[in-house]
């Protein structure tokens, strides 16, 4: 069964389209992350799912039941949805326990506090039940907000940037705890975020949004390793871009040839490689051996190197066009500026895309030509 289904959602404000033809499903116990930059329509999509806003066209279904279409629009309180936002939205004049019990009006008064305490214990906040929100840290307040949202046992949990107000270390702790509880509840979770690390960490599926549309949707591993285009790849990490031109269904680069059977001659292409997929070797006076896995090594000169904690970042000016490529190496590796090096790339980790206004690749390109 599908907990939440969005079918062909469209939302316009006058002539401005905020959401255009968005469709997705969320299964029980599944976390789907709507990932995208500010203004792409992800929060509007979430508000439509909650019932706070009404779509211009399309349908919203919860557990297979239509809750909003052209003729029907149920309010949020009738949809069995839980809501979590960045600002916690706790009532300052109520204790932690009474905040959680507030949404349990359907239960008898005697049962409300029992349920509230049970959910506070699940998020490790039972010992703070009699405190007020201002006496808690940001992470503690967000745990209380999670307990309050889950206590009515919603079928769908809608979360809009709920952890973005926390510092990095606390954010990891709180969202890991939240994920464990959400999975146990078997609710379908739709999480809005602009943070790719959060989407990879929490999502069973990631829906990448751009300009009001879902551009790509899939499991985190798939969407990270098979991005639809350069913009999709860039959303998850820094990129190096190597330019080339197609001749006889191949693109020649300083790192060897790439097969491009789907492009015509003279088409401009971009070969994309992430910094961690570049291999760097100090120049010992001889060109390193090439291989089918890493292709042809290309020479360059170190411009700058920096130690970043778990890894080192090295910027290299390439001999062939003076472009600057960045490589990351685990641990400490900080050659001085002016050091001669060789760069090679992991060919299986490269992406190749036609430049703007070029014909698209008709079939998956091959990376194993050297």
Question: Which tags fit this structure?
Answer:
alpha+beta, OB fold (Dihydrolipoamide Acetyltransferase, E2P), elongated, 370 residues, 6-stranded mixed β-sheet, disordered C terminus, 5-stranded antiparallel β-sheet, Rossmann fold, 2 domains
Structure write-up:
With 370 residues, the chain is of the alpha+beta class. The chain is 22% helix and 34% strand. The protein has helices at 42-50, 96-101, 109-122, 138-150, 168-185, 196-202, 220-225, 230-236, and strands at 4-13, 16-26, 31-35, 57-62, 65-68, 81-85, 156-160, 188-193, 205-210, 213-218, 240-247, 250-253, 256-259, 268-273, 278-282, 298-307, 311-318, 324-330, 340-345, 351-354. The protein has a 6-stranded mixed β-sheet, with helices on both faces. Strands 13-12-11-14-20 form a 5-stranded antiparallel β-sheet, with no helix packed on it. A 5-stranded antiparallel β-sheet has the order 15-19-16-17-18, with no helix packed on it. The two termini are 48 Å apart. Residues 359-370 have low confidence and may be disordered.
């Amino acid at each position: 069964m599908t907990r939440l289904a969005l079918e062909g959602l469209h939302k316009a404000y006058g002539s401005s389209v905020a959401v255009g033809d968005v469709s997705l499903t969320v299964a029980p116990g599944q976390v789907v992350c709507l990932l995208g930059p500010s203004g792409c329509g992800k929060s509007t999509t979430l508000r439509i799912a909650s019932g706070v806003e009404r779509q211009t066209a399309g349908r919203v279904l919860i557990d297979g039941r239509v809750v909003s279409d052209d003729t029907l629009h149920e309010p949020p309180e009738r949809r069995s949805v839980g809501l979590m936002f960045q600002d916690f939205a706790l009532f300052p004049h109520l204790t932690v326990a009474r905040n959680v019990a507030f949404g349990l009006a359907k239960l008898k008064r005697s049962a409300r506090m029992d349920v509230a305490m049970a959910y506070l214990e699940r998020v490790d906040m039972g010992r703070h039940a009699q405190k007020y929100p201002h006496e808690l840290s940001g992470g503690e307040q967000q745990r209380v907000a999670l307990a309050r949202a889950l206590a009515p046992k919603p079928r769908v949990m809608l979360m809009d940037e709920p952890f973005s107000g926390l510092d990095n270390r606390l954010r990891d702790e709180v969202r890991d705890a939240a994920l464990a509880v959400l999975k146990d509840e078997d609710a379908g979770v739709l999480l809005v975020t602009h943070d790719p690390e959060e989407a990879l960490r929490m999502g069973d599926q990631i829906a990448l949004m751009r300009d009001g549309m879902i551009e790509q949707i899939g499991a985190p591993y798939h969407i990270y390793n098979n991005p639809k285009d350069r913009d999709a790849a860039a959303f998850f990490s820094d990129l190096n871009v190597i330019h080339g031109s197609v001749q006889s269904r191949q693109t020649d680069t300083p790192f060897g040839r790439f097969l491009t059977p789907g492009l015509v001659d003279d088409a401009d292409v971009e070969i994309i490689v992430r910094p961690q997929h570049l291999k760097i070797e100090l120049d010992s006076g001889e060109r390193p051996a090439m291989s089918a896995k890493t292709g042809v090594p290309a020479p360059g000169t170190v411009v700058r190197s920096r130690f970043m904690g778990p890894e080192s970042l090295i910027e290299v000016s390439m001999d062939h066009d003076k472009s600057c490529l960045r490589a990351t190496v685990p641990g400490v590796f900080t050659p001085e500026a002016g050091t001669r090096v060789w760069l090679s790339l992991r060919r299986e980790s490269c992406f190749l895309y036609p430049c703007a206004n070029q014909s698209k690749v008709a079939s998956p390109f091959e990376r194993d030509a050297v």
